[in-house]
């Protein structure tokens, strides 16, 4: 879940940048010469050249110093003195050589000028800057120089806002099970590009993740320290976390779910969602909540209060949504209105098969969870979530709206909107946006429109920016 409205709960997302290797170390065409094993007597003779030449002396006393002649000996020479016609011939050769050199220099200068003009013309787009951002749609998203990033089939996908307001963090799993963190500037996400290239990419130190694990990410600030935190399922399906700050590297993975026999992710489920919380809209960060599809076929809440325990300690069990279908995913979000803070959770009803939406006000200080009763949504069979549907939600405080994305029974991506504060049932237009192929989802909000990330064509990621009225403002593939 991601929102662009509240600074205290968001992280600047400083990301490590791998510097390219020095070319001489990486290029197979540049190899070091191996030293020989011979002794110095086998080394070539050292030759020293004099700084000038002295007048040669003939070894024969009756002869003057010989003067080399151009051409072969013709039998007409006496005493080594050249004939006059030979002197003229040599002068003509020298003049001809000088003339050829001058002509070559002139031609070279003309050719060089033309090449420079051609080069200037082809690079006129770069003449105003020495650096082109990799996300510039005219350069960084050129499909002739980039291909779609390859992702694991059924990869988890997570998004989170960066605190400086400059863009979106996106996490996914590569085909070799590695977890990748990428960053997309807001300027890029606001374009109508067919490709989206991240400005930075980093590999996270996670080696125990289950293939196809769902992912969820949050960002927040504690005492001016900016955190980003990622959640995933370990190979044994325990819920795990890893975190980093602006000044520290990623932590060692730590377990979130308690050490009981039932605190495991439901196998194959997309149900994992995390969110930070505070008790007031302008209050300090207090902790985080995680909602996941539990193996006993319900949605389980886990929470951590940073005033009571360390971040790497096992978290506390909270609310149980016993009517949820754990085969499907779980969406969550936070919204504000004045001093009120609302926590929303979405899931599939295990009995009716419809979408359920429950919310909590002020973290339960005044009342418990309230169900919005999705009567209108339940009445539309085309918008019933599929059995294994993922859920993703994002809110827009400026227009008091929140958006829910999920997979319908027909296999297509669905979007419904509802009031954010206080949360209400889905209303207005219910929209479809083509097949999602059973993959997981993540959502983000930028420039007045939600952005949904989903897997496309098995091995690729796609970003769609959608207007509330249903028009697709952008639909692009993530490239590397």
From TrEMBL:
It comes from the Eukaryota. Residues 118-129 have a biased composition (Low complexity). Gene3D superfamilies: Fucose-specific lectin. The chain crosses the membrane at residues 92-112. SUPFAM superfamilies: Fucose-specific lectin (SSF89372). Residues 1-45, 58-86, 116-146 are annotated as: Disordered. Keywords: Membrane, Transmembrane, Transmembrane helix. Residues 21-30, 130-146 have a biased composition (Polar residues). The keyword RNA-binding does not apply. This is Fucose-specific lectin. It comes from Sphaceloma murrayae. The lineage of its organism: Eukaryota, Fungi, Dikarya, Ascomycota, Pezizomycotina.
């Amino acid at each position: 879940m991601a929102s662009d409205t509240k600074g205290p709960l968001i992280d600047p997302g400083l990301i490590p940048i791998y510097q390219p290797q020095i070319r001489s170390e990486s290029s197979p065409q540049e190899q070091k010469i191996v030293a020989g094993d011979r002794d110095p007597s086998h080394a070539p003779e050292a030759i020293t050249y004099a700084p000038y030449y002295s007048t040669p002396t003939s070894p024969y006393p009756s002869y003057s110093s010989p003067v080399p002649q151009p051409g072969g000996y013709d039998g007409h020479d006496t005493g080594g003195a050249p004939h006059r016609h030979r002197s003229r011939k040599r002068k003509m050769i020298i003049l001809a050589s000088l003339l050829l050199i001058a002509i070559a220099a002139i031609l070279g200068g003309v050719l060089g000028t033309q090449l420079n003009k051609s080069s200037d013309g082809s690079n006129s787009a770069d003449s105003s800057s020495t650096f082109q951002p990799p996300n510039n749609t005219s350069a960084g998203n050129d499909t002739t120089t980039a291909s779609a990033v390859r992702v694991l089939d059924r990869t988890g996908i997570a998004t989170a806002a960066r605190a400086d307001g400059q863009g979106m963090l996106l996490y996914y799993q590569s085909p070799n099970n590695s977890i990748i963190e990428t960053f997309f500037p807001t300027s890029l996400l606001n374009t109508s590009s067919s490709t989206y290239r991240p400005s930075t990419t980093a590999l996270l130190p996670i080696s125990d993740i289950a293939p196809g694990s769902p992912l969820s990410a949050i960002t927040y600030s504690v005492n001016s320290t900016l955190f980003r935190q990622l959640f995933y399922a370990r190979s044994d399906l325990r819920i795990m976390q890893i975190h980093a700050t602006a000044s520290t590297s990623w932590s060692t993975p730590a377990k979130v779910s308690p050490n009981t026999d039932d605190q495991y992710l439901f196998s194959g489920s997309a149900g994992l969602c995390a969110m930070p919380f505070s008790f007031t809209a302008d209050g300090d960060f207090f902790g985080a909540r995680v909602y996941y599809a539990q193996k006993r076929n319900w949605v389980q809440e886990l929470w951590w209060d940073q005033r009571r325990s360390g971040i790497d300690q096992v978290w506390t069990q909270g609310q149980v949504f016993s009517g949820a279908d754990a085969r499907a995913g779980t969406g969550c979000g936070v919204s504000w209105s004045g001093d009120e803070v609302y926590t929303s959770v979405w899931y599939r009803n295990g009995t009716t098969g419809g979408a359920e939406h429950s919310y909590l006000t002020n973290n339960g200080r005044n009342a418990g969870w309230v169900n919005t009763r999705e009567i209108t949504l339940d009445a539309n069979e085309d918008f019933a979530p599929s059995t294994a549907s993922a859920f993703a939600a994002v809110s827009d405080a400026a227009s008091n709206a929140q958006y829910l994305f999920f997979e319908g029974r027909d296999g297509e991506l669905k979007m419904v909107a509802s009031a954010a504060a206080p949360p209400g049932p889905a209303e207005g237009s219910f929209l479809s946006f083509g097949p999602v192929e059973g993959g997981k989802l993540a959502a983000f909000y930028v420039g007045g429109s939600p952005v949904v990330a989903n897997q496309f064509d098995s091995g690729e990621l796609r970003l769609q920016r959608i207007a509330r009225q249903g028009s697709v403002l952008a639909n692009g593939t993530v490239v590397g």
